[in-house]
Amino acid sequence: MRGIEAALQVLEQVRAGRFASEALRRIGMKPADAALASSLVYIALRRRELWQEVYGGFLKEGAKGGHKGLPPAVQDALLAGTAGLLELRRFAGGVLVNALLDDLKARSLKRWVPLVNAVLHNVGEEGAKRVEALRRSPALEDRALWAGVPRWSLPAWTRTWQRADLNRLFELLPLPPAAALRPAPGRREELLARLWEAGVEAEPSDLSEAVRLKDTLLPTEVPGFDEGLATMQTEGSMLVADMVRRCYRGGLILDMCCGRGVKAAQILSACPEARLEGWELSEGRHRSALREVRRLGVEGRARLRCGDALKLEPEEAPSLILLDAPCSGSGTWSRKPEAKWRLTWEELDRLAAAQRALLERAFALSAPRGIILYVTCSLLRGENESVMADFFEAHPECAELPARPEGPPFRRGRPWGTYIWPENPWLDGFYCAATMRLS
């Protein structure tokens, strides 16, 4: 399947609820077509409302602002066409537009071809000026639109960050992400050598033991992946797991929401004396976590269970609890852009309630002098400092532990916890707050 046609199929599946990465993996393509499809899908999704605003401005007066009334396939063609014309730097715009029009004809939507052709012609002529005007606008709403921040979420951002911080964040959020690799302990030079030998552009990170790639790769394409030489993981995620290592003082570690087990495996690899129990509600992610600890050879010190973290009981009292709570993922929206368009205020409130319940459960499981590390991949105060404020008010017997030093990429929360900012393509945004139960 060719790249543009595949991109349209992926956008169709994303609309139906699938993740773009999953849909891309399921479509068989040549490498060049896969690269084009992936690029087109992600640039379309990262700033979807921006592209809709741009092409919507070129619709005829009767349809202006009414792009949702267009057939879904026509919406996808306009979305992909606008994003591609304004962001793809090494692909001929005429080829893109012709392919989109051919796809509409193949879908028996020929009557929409003149409209799409006319709108995309105007996008090519005037769209870049409109985008630049939004980027330079003093209005925060315009800059948020340019950055790909959903309109509904802007009040949550303004409650979290001051204007100067928001301006900087809105410059960072549209950056396309690149892959980072975590080498097995002490084997970074070996990993770099094997990557270079395979023709993969890579360099050592200046933030951690990570290796940075110029672009992205599938994990199975990484030299030495199957033998445990490397793990694909963002640098923000690595820094979070490293905080666990710094806090660890012996005993059992409980990972209450262990997901696919990437952080759990990193913790066990970095702490050879540690034992870890991990809980995960999703059966699919639980199976992935089992494969991950086996791949890295740490399964003998890991007990991974599938179930509800609000109900499970650990095999022994944990000395350290990692609560990587479900959240909006606003710090990872560049990497998983479809997630932000599915969120609502109601869902954000539901997530905050779940975070409070899980943190309360972590407190109930903790022992005196036990440590709780509360983590989200969110940059929004309502999921972070507000949750910790309620926790400390309910539990004065808990105290915050000293945070990591300030300075890029770390920023102190107000007043609790520490943020990891998405300062570069290898970092996702995170929030971390470490507490100790004193009695």
Give structural notes.
- By secondary structure, this protein is α/β, with parallel strands linked by helices.
- It has helices spanning 3-15, 20-26, 31-46, 48-56, 72-87, 93-106, 113-136, 140-147, 154-158, 163-172, 188-197, 235-247, 262-270, 283-295, 345-365, 385-394, and strands spanning 180-183, 202-204, 211-213, 230-232, 252-255, 275-280, 302-306, 320-324, 371-376, 398-400, 410-412, 418-420, 430-437.
- The chain has 16 helices and 13 strands.
- Strands 5, 6, 7, 8, 9, 10, 11, 12 and 13 form a 9-stranded mixed sheet that branches. Strands 2-3-1-4 form a 4-stranded antiparallel sheet, with helices on one face.
- It is globular and about 70 Å long.
- The mean pLDDT is 93.
Essential attributes:
439 residues; alpha/beta; nine-stranded mixed beta sheet; four-stranded antiparallel beta sheet; 13% strand; globular
Strand content: 5-15%
Shape: globular
Oligomer: single chain
State the helical fraction: 40-55%
The largest sheet, given as strand count, sense and whether it forms a barrel, is: 9 strands, mixed
Uncertain stretches of 5 or more adjacent residues: none
Beta-strand segment tally: 13
Mean pLDDT: 93
Distance between the termini: 62 Å
Question: What is the CA-atom radius of gyration, in angstroms?
Answer: 23 Å
Which structural category fits the helices and strands? alpha/beta
How many helical stretches?
A: 16
H-E order: HHHHHHHHHHEHEEEHEHEHEEHEHEEEE
